[in-house]
Design goal:
Helices cover about 40% and strands about 20% of the residues. By secondary structure, the protein is α/β, with parallel strands linked by helices. Helix 4 packs across helix 5.
Length: about 260
């Protein structure tokens, strides 16, 4: 952070030479924090409304801990995705207020943006659906992400098209959602079915679950991209985080009256 710039801006705001909104716009572009092996974007929340998220896969445990320590100084709630239990145990020894969501493989450091009581009375919610039990880890990554960022989330799992009545039993909750996430492997048909039922955005998430001809999720990805249902968008294979983030952006307070 350029401390001299920050000090100058504060003096200008106090003197009335710079408006608060103008100062905030300048702060959005302040430099990152360089800790050697990573350059931390501490002002991402100012620009995007969400702090930087730590992708743990490929990083050493020591790197994850160091990044979380620095980010937690500036942000109320930090997400660390694709983290295993061993990484979480090491984080707990060094970072306070960390919670592990095992199915989602997400560590949440700090408090979610909104309390459980606030979320419980929110009329706007994200609905996360998945085709089969094997898709739950990706679905949970989406659900935990959206919840931590401040959206109410409802779930309906194992409602794939092989037994369509299971999905139709959730019709009331599905139709009441502000945005929906459809997670499925195999042929990925769930997204098209959901898209044909609702008048809200549907975010399709193909998973790598399936037999050989699914090609590690490629079949589901192509099926979702070719959906004949309007209003369906698609994220990458197994990208539950991306779906949960996007769903929150659509659903967050003030985004839709």
């Amino acid at each position: 952070m350029d401390v001299s710039l920050l000090r100058t801006l504060l003096e200008q705001v106090k003197a009335g030479d710079v408006q608060v909104d103008d100062a905030m716009q300048r702060l959005r572009a302040l430099p990152y924090e360089d800790i050697g092996f990573a350059k931390l974007d501490n002002h991402r929340h100012l620009r995007n409304g969400v702090p930087e998220v730590v992708f743990c896969q490929g990083k050493t445990t020591e790197q994850v801990i160091a990044i979380l320590k620095r980010l937690s100084v500036h942000s109320k709630c930090i997400l660390a995705t694709r983290a295993d239990a061993c990484v979480y145990e090491a984080v707990c020894a060094e970072v306070t207020d960390a919670t592990y969501h095992e199915a989602a493989r997400i560590i949440v450091v700090g408090s979610p943006e909104r309390s459980e009581a606030e979320l419980a009375v929110d009329a706007k919610y994200v609905m996360v659906l998945c085709g089969g039990t094997a898709d739950i880890p990706v679905a949970e990554e989406a659900a935990v992400t959206a919840t931590a960022l401040g959206s109410r989330v409802e779930r309906a799992y194992d409602v794939g098209v092989a037994g369509l009545h299971r999905l139709l039993d959730q019709k009331e909750m599905v139709l009441g959602a502000n945005v929906l996430i459809a997670v499925a492997g195999m042929e990925g048909a769930l997204a098209s079915v959901v898209g044909g039922l609702v008048d809200r955005p549907v975010i399709a998430v193909p998973t790598s679950i399936g037999y050989g001809a699914s090609f590690g999720g490629l079949a589901a990805l192509l099926s979702m991209l070719n959906s004949c249902a309007a209003g369906v968008s698609v994220v990458n294979i197994d990208n539950g985080f991306g779906a949960g983030y996007l769903a929150h952006m659509i659903n967050r307070p003030g985004s839709r009256e």
